[in-house]
């Protein structure tokens, strides 16, 4: 885990040696933004801004090209490939069934200690991918094979990389969760992830080793494909994150133990694409903002990502509306709004028309009430955080250091922590519909769980460390998840080691319902309590539909009357409302060991997670010999014997 070391050590300046044979060709370490000095904003002001590594018109499909298919995305964004007299590949295709066969896209990543200063302030024991935060933007085309070689050069930790929201259909061993789908990658070793891009849109990748991702091991992932609305310019990923100056491993102590005002852990700042302003002793802010270029009259595509440890945000752009065209990796029917709740792990694709006076306009990331955690003074004011964290700059606008635009709060924007699908069940309507059966194939009473927190330390809970745990419980014998790094579930899906929190599903058709409640209705243990906070729930291995979200506790008799079955919102991360419930359903069509967890890093590390083992009898045949996993586990066990890792949290 490295906690015992990281509490004592501070950042060292690391030297990074690339190990990709193609390093000089596509240089993945380019920063997302480079400031310049001009009197007016022009193209040269954004020399380090996002430029697609892959132009969608250059996506290549050898087999389909030979029989006459050609790109049609330049004709309409809803189309991807077209052959006269035949059906198009496009936005209306069921991407779980119809997938064009592309080519291989190969990348190399190194995890190592890094000197990270997004807002100019040093971070204790920062860890990064190829020396930068965020890590390199990985890009591919719909149907491509993505191959990523990950090397661990960070001696204090193992590592894995999870491809957030990627379904990993029949590639469970590539999901990147130590203790579930693989052993951690040992120091000095390499693991190769290889999977098909069956979905399209954008997401992010991050370490799933303990608390490593809040320390810097995360980056954007873009899969070019059709979209449900027209646009002109792709402005690329906008990755928003809370930022801690301390190492996350040390900060977790204030989740596990009572640190007074530091419980739960408090982030120091907000950074956007690895850039943040800093409030100086005189009260003035540094002019260190991420900015992105707009051209008058053009429609701009923005790819929003929340890569935080513990905070959700309400995202808005002064004087502009957004057309929402995708939630997570699901294309939806377009609708317009002035703001979006961006929960931890969630993504939205939006189109913004540059129809205002050429000027500078703030992009606001307002911490959501009850769903964020930043340092405050005695008056309850943020000490180092503000909502104006980045901005858009029209080409030709005066080159001022930052905008003076005003918020759109007078147009109905609030800081309420509520999902779009919770505001209105008729938002986030998928283009490719699912009609969910009103009769689940599983026993819902067994598969109803409550997110709860200990009132007092319980010595009967594993590990027998003197701290309070979060967990997902369905009876009084439930335990927090605590994975065994050396014994991933995928190698034997039939065993149930202590504290593995495994629920198995033998069902192979229909829909499995899961209820996650915030009032501890399903666990009579008086030592547990509901904490009034929203929990972003993320499921690996499948998208799920949101049957309903409600502020009220779940009622097995009356709550299902409010379920939506005809093409409900579908995604991979949704908010459990504070004190209420989240009802979701997924297809059991992907045999494997899959994690479901709260994406608040402190809660996941405390044990607020489950393993869902889907169709366990089929897992060996689907996964094959798993030689890369076995070799990786052999390397991990050998290294752990030589230089033992002390596991101080759940491991995920």
UniProtKB/TrEMBL annotation:
<dbReference type="InterPro" id="IPR045087">
    <property type="entry name" value="Cu-oxidase_fam"/>
</dbReference>
<dbReference type="InterPro" id="IPR001117">
    <property type="entry name" value="Cu-oxidase_2nd"/>
</dbReference>
<feature type="domain" description="Plastocyanin-like">
    <location>
        <begin position="236"/>
        <end position="395"/>
    </location>
</feature>
<feature type="domain" description="Plastocyanin-like">
    <location>
        <begin position="528"/>
        <end position="617"/>
    </location>
</feature>
<keyword id="KW-0186">Copper</keyword>
<dbReference type="InterPro" id="IPR008972">
    <property type="entry name" value="Cupredoxin"/>
</dbReference>
<dbReference type="InterPro" id="IPR002355">
    <property type="entry name" value="Cu_oxidase_Cu_BS"/>
</dbReference>
<dbReference type="InterPro" id="IPR033138">
    <property type="entry name" value="Cu_oxidase_CS"/>
</dbReference>
<dbReference type="GO" id="GO:0016491">
    <property type="term" value="F:oxidoreductase activity"/>
</dbReference>
<keyword id="KW-0560">Oxidoreductase</keyword>
<feature type="domain" description="Plastocyanin-like">
    <location>
        <begin position="111"/>
        <end position="226"/>
    </location>
</feature>
<dbReference type="Pfam" id="PF07732">
    <property type="entry name" value="Cu-oxidase_3"/>
</dbReference>
<comment type="similarity">
    <text>Belongs to the multicopper oxidase family.</text>
</comment>
<dbReference type="Pfam" id="PF07731">
    <property type="entry name" value="Cu-oxidase_2"/>
</dbReference>
<dbReference type="InterPro" id="IPR011707">
    <property type="entry name" value="Cu-oxidase-like_N"/>
</dbReference>
<dbReference type="InterPro" id="IPR011706">
    <property type="entry name" value="Cu-oxidase_C"/>
</dbReference>
<dbReference type="GO" id="GO:0005507">
    <property type="term" value="F:copper ion binding"/>
</dbReference>
<protein>
    <submittedName>
        <fullName>Multicopper oxidase-domain-containing protein</fullName>
    </submittedName>
</protein>
<dbReference type="Pfam" id="PF00394">
    <property type="entry name" value="Cu-oxidase"/>
</dbReference>
<keyword id="KW-0479">Metal-binding</keyword>
């Amino acid at each position: 885990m490295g906690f015992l070391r990281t509490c004592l050590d501070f950042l060292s300046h690391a030297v990074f040696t690339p190990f990709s044979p193609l390093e000089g060709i596509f240089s993945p370490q380019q920063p997302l933004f480079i400031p310049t000095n001009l009197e007016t904003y022009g193209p040269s002001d954004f020399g380090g801004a996002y430029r697609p590594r892959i132009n969608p018109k250059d996506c290549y499909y050898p087999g389909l090209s030979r029989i006459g298919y050609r790109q049609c995305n330049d004709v309409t964004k809803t189309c991807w490939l077209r052959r006269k007299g035949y059906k198009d590949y496009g936005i209306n295709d069921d991407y779980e069934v119809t997938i064009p066969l592309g080519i291989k896209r190969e990348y190399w990543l190194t995890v190592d200690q890094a000197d990270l200063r997004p807002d100019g302030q040093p971070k204790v024991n920062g860890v990064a991918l190829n020396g930068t935060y965020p890590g390199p933007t990985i890009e591919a085309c719909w149907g491509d094979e993505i191959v990523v070689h990950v090397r661990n050069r960070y001696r204090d930790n193992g590592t894995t990389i999870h491809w957030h929201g990627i379904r990993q259909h029949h590639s469970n061993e590539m999901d990147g969760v130590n203790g579930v789908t693989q052993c951690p990658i040992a120091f000095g070793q390499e693991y190769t992830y290889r999977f098909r891009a069956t979905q399209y849109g954008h997401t992010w990748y991050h370490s799933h080793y303990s608390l490593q991702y809040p320390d810097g091991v995360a980056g954007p992932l873009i899969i070019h494909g059709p979209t449900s609305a027209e646009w002109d310019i792709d402005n690329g990923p906008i990755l928003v994150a809370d930022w801690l100056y301390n190492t996350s491993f040390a900060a977790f102590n204030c989740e596990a133990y009572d640190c007074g005002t530091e419980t739960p852990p408090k982030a120091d700042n907000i950074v956007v694409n690895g850039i943040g302003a800093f409030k100086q002793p005189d009260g003035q802010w540094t002019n260190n903002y991420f900015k992105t270029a707009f051209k008058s009259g053009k429609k701009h595509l923005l790819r929003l990502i929340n890569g935080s440890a513990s905070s959700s945000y309400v995202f808005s752009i002064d004087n502009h509306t957004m057309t929402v065209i995708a939630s997570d990796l699901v294309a939806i029917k377009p609708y317009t709004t002035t703001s979006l709740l961006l929960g931890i792990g969630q993504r939205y694709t939006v189109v913004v028309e540059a129809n205002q006076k050429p000027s500078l306009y703030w992009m606001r990331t307002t911490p959501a009430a009850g769903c964020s955690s930043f340092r405050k003074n005695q008056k309850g004011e943020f000490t180092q955080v503000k909502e104006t964290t980045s901005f858009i700059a029209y080409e030709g606008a005066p080159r001022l250091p930052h905008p003076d635009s005003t918020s759109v709060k007078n147009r109905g924007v609030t800081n309420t922590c509520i999902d779009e699908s919770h505001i209105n069940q008729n938002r986030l309507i998928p283009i490719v519909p699912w009609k969910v059966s009103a009769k689940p194939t599983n026993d819902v009473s067994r598969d109803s769980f409550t997110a709860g927190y200990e009132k007092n330390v319980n010595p009967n809970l594993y590990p027998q460390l003197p701290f309070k745990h979060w967990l997902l419980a369905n009876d009084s014998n439930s335990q927090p998840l605590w994975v065994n790094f050396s014994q991933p579930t995928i190698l034997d899906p039939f065993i149930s080691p202590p504290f593995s929190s495994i629920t198995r599903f033998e069902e192979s058709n229909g829909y499995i319902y899961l209820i996650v409640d915030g009032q501890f209705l399903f666990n009579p243990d008086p030592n547990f309590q509901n904490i009034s906070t929203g929990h972003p729930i993320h499921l690996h291995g499948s998208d799920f539909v949101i049957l309903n979200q409600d502020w009220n506790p779940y009622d097995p008799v009356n709550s299902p009357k409010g379920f939506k079955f005809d093409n409900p919102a579908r995604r991979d991360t949704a908010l459990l409302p504070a004190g209420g419930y989240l009802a979701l359903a997924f297809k059991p069509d992907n045999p494997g060991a899959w994690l479901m967890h709260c994406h608040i890093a402190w809660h996941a590390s405390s044990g607020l997670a489950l393993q869902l083992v889907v169709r366990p009898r089929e897992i060996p045949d689907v996964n094959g010999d798993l030689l890369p996993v076995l070799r990786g586990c052999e390397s991990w066990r050998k290294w752990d014997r030589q230089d033992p890792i002390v596991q101080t949290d759940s491991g995920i």
